[in-house]
Amino acid sequence: MRRGKTILIGLLALLFVGVIGSPLASRHVRQVTGRSDVGVTPCWNCHGPGGYRSYRGARPHPSPRFLAADLERRVLYASLGPTEQVARIDLESDEVRLSEPLGATPRGVAVSADGSRVAVALQEADRLALLDPLSLAVEGRLAVGAEPAGVAFVGNGRLVVANAGSGDVTLLDLPDLDAGALRARGAVDELRFAAGREPYAVAAGGDGGVVAVVSRMVAADLPDRLPRSEVTFLNPATLRVIRRVDLPSVHLAEDAAFTPDGRHLLVPALRTRNLLPILQVARGWVVSSVVAVIDSASGRVALLPLNQPNRNFPDPTGVAIDPEGRWAWVAAGGSNEVVRLDLPKLLAVAGGLEPEAPEDLGLASHYLERRFPVGLNPRDLVVIDGHLAVAERLNDAVSWYRPAGELLTRIRLGD
């Protein structure tokens, strides 16, 4: 009798697993993995001994975030934070070469004007690594401020580094040394400037006569005052600060680009409205996405919306400008898309706005020309040969698009 009950219970268990448990297990696997093409798999594959351990020991994703281009040689460089590497991408052959792990998280990357050196900021090491542009071998490591982020070359021998952790900018004069001498010396002449709270992005004007450093975070102030971040304009030739420009209510600015004539700087960011009641969310009364247009000569600021009525633009990240001055592109990391802005119309609208002008989402229709989808979580943007390179962080890829958004190629940087 007892044996019969055992058999009956076993049969019912098999029936449950086959009829009810199997669909539930498939649903569970699909939810956890985010994939729809996964079939039934035994529970012990994940939940058994070693299941989680093998997952934790897996190779990290490349997650490209920062880009730099050698325009003459049609080569892109991408920093891969989780793997602590830099990738060299030949756009002629789609060949990818990876550096050896650098021992710290690489952030901003830059290429000298003649393509002879690549510099990359190493976050936790408080160092700047100089790499050979072909082999990606490390030629030297130079001390900078705390947690360096953005990097830009001015010509071939001067570097501007934004130190997010120490709140300053380092100007480095690189000596004309070979790789061996750089390794032996390990330090160069440097100069420091304060630059707001968490300096993050560095942009150089077309002729290198002016450099802008954008702080990512707003400065702390009293609750009844507008929060403000800072853009610091430097003259790298005279080693002087030209001016400091406040960006009212601007937060999480992570990139910047000069127009080809150097007269304006574009900074995509969030506009936080901490002095307004939490009402009218759709009209931008709480937080909205904007592109700050800054006049380089006067420091005048206009904040233009990237949101449209009933259509958000979440998490503005990278910005790039066409060398001919026709278009600007801005990436939305939260919606996996890029917008193309008519640059002359954008500048014309900016000329009639004051920084504290009320949010008018209808303005975007005057200059926001096109939206197009890209890969997951786009971050940095670079224009090369009239086309747009996009660092697609959660795709583990760098993709190349035509100006209107047609995908040309997607170059994978990992599994």
Outline the structure in words.
- Residues 177-189 have low confidence and may be disordered.
- The chain contains 6 helices and 29 strands.
- A hairpin with a 5-residue loop joins β20 and β21.
- It has helices spanning 2-33, 44-47, 51-56, 179-185, 343-350, 364-367; strands at 64-70, 75-80, 85-90, 95-98, 106-111, 118-122, 127-131, 138-143, 148-154, 158-163, 168-173, 189-194, 197-204, 211-217, 228-235, 240-248, 250-251, 257-258, 264-272, 287-295, 301-305, 316-321, 327-332, 337-342, 368-373, 378-384, 387-392, 397-401, 407-412.
- 42% of the residues are buried.
- The strands form 7 sheets. Strands 17, 18, 19, 20 and 21 form a 5-stranded antiparallel β-sheet that branches. It has a 4-stranded antiparallel β-sheet with strand order 1-2-3-4, with no helix packed on it. Strands 5-6-7-8 form a 4-stranded antiparallel β-sheet.
- It is mainly β and 415 residues long.
Count of DSSP-assigned helices: 6
Q: What radius of gyration results from the CA coordinates? A: 25 Å
The major pleated sheet works out as: 5 strands, antiparallel
* Broad shape: globular
The amount of helix comes to: 10-25%
Class of secondary structure makeup: mainly beta
| Structure summary, number of beta strands | 29
Proportion in β-strands: 35-45%
Unreliable stretches covering 5 or more consecutive residues:
177-189
Let me know the average pLDDT: 86
State the end-to-end distance: 56 Å
